[in-house]
Amino acid sequence: MKRIVIASLIAIFGIQPVLAERIKDLAQVQGVRNNQLIGYGLVVGLNGTGDKNPFTDQSLNSMLTKFGINMPPGVKPNSKNIAAVAVHADLPPFIKPGQTIDVSVASLGNAKSLAGGSLLMTPLRGLDGNVYAMAQGALVVGGLDASGKDGSKITINYPGGGHVPNGAIVERGVDSGFDVGNTLTLNLRQGDFTTAKTIVDAINQKFGADTARALDAQSIEVMAPRMASQKVSYLSEIENIEVTPAQSAAKVIVNARTGTVVIGQNVRIGAAAVAHGNLSVSVGEGNNVSQPNPFANGQTAVTPASQVAVDQQKARMFKFESGVSLDELVKTVNKIGASPSDLVAILEALKASGALKAELLVI
User: Which runs of consecutive H residues, i.e. helices, occur in the chain?
Assistant: First the structure.
């Protein structure tokens, strides 16, 4: 069964024909990206599952002071219905003030659960320290935490975090530079010189020579109209051009912990002969009891008895001709009944001998 699974996985991931893909799926426009936001806030309305931390009490006192309520000196609120939380969100490109985004909330202290709580108004700041959104709303928590007086407890998922759908109102957007200049830069999701050249040739064929040029294996500069509205139509046409990306470099990825092996399509093996066998040693421990005759005035003696057995399977040798393909490799390994760990050992030995014509990555 293991060798069937290995063959199936390799067939799925490694021997699929290369098909044409849209430029939209291969590259993204430079500057058009999400921006991360973060904030610190309070969640209230918890059912006794909140924090017991000094900074939570300090935050509560600070909030009450802004509303004109001053706590007496030396008095601590010790409220169990409040939790200090970290709030974070992604600000999409081209989003405008007044639109809403989702926010995620996670406990900063020792709150047991945020279920049933509401996030109070929290400013979300960017890397530059400016406020880009204000978050507030009721939390949706997928976890569950329940305990009894006898100490029994049950926890499902993680109740110390949640999210607020459309919980933040955008106050300002981020300038992407999309409407500046007469060029656009496309960044490949996976850098490759051949793929970059293929995209450049496809764009130039559609829009004319010298419209696009490759800056390196990752970036392509494209001439574009200056007006933003014209750039949108122009970029829409570019995104839907279909090209055939280059085949990836020959790689074999091995997860040594789970025995998972993924072999790329272009992997080849040089001439090599492989012998692979298993040696197992089993040790059993027991006791022998020596009982003297009734009138011999002797003592009962207990002596250890060990049983050691060695089982060495016959090594099975098989030969690879020069230039063996992935399909032939899988068939050969499956014929000898190699397990995933055996396959890992064979691949590592082939790489050490120089017969494996691929990069071997062990993760």
Answer: 2-14, 23-26, 54-66, 193-207, 228-239, 326-335, 340-353
Identity of the amino acid at 277: G
State how far the Cα of 270 lies from the Cα of 267, in Å rounded to an integer.
Answer: 10
Helices 326-335 and 340-353 pack at an angle, to 10 degrees, of: 130
The confidence score (pLDDT) of residue 17 equals 53
**pLDDT on residue 350:** 76
Residues 255-275: what's their mean pLDDT? Answer: 74
End-to-end CA distance of the chain: 24
Q: Domain residues of the chain, as ranges?
A: 1-17+247-287+315-363, 35-170, 178-243
Q: How many residues does the chain have?
A: 363
Question: At 77, which amino acid appears?
Answer: P
pTM given for the model:
0.67
With helix as H, strand as E and coil as C, how does 197-262 read? HHHHHHHHHHHCCCCEEECCCCEEEEECCCCHHHHHHHHHHHHCCEECCCCCCCEEEEECCCCEEE
Q: List the one residue out of 81, 88, 96 whose CA is nearest residue 123.
A: 88
Tens of pLDDT along 4-35?
444 444 444 444 455 789 999 999 999 899 99
